[in-house]
Design brief:
mainly beta; SH3 type barrels; 6-stranded antiparallel sheet; two-stranded antiparallel sheet; 10 strands
């Protein structure tokens, strides 16, 4: 079970984009793609079969998962994540500082 998942709000804690927040678009093993963070310009060839025009496309590049932290809206800052097993056997993510559940 991953500590950071697709759709989570994260805050960047290191690097050029330190302090910025965004939503996780994808998680790839030890890297994450965060919306509007680490933007790169990709020069693409047109592909008529996929109806894709060519040109310069701006998109997100990956960031190492250790450089982002799950955003705790209650504390208004990044927070560490732990796991807790509930009485019914489900394993849920919790914030380390408060102990409250990340997932509702």
């Amino acid at each position: 079970m991953n500590k950071i998942r697709k759709g989570d709000q994260v805050i960047v804690i290191a690097g050029k984009y330190k302090g910025q927040r965004g939503e996780v678009l994808r998680v790839a093993t030890d890297r994450v793609f965060v919306q509007n963070i680490n933007l790169i310009k990709r020069h693409t060839k047109p592909n008529p079969q996929a109806n894709q025009p060519g040109g310069i496309v701006e998109r997100e590049a990956s960031i190492h998962i250790s450089n982002v932290m799950l955003f705790n809206a209650a504390a208004n800052k990044g927070d560490r994540v732990g796991f807790k097993t509930l009485d019914d056997g489900r394993k849920v993510r919790t914030f380390r500082s408060s102990g409250e559940q990340v997932d509702a």
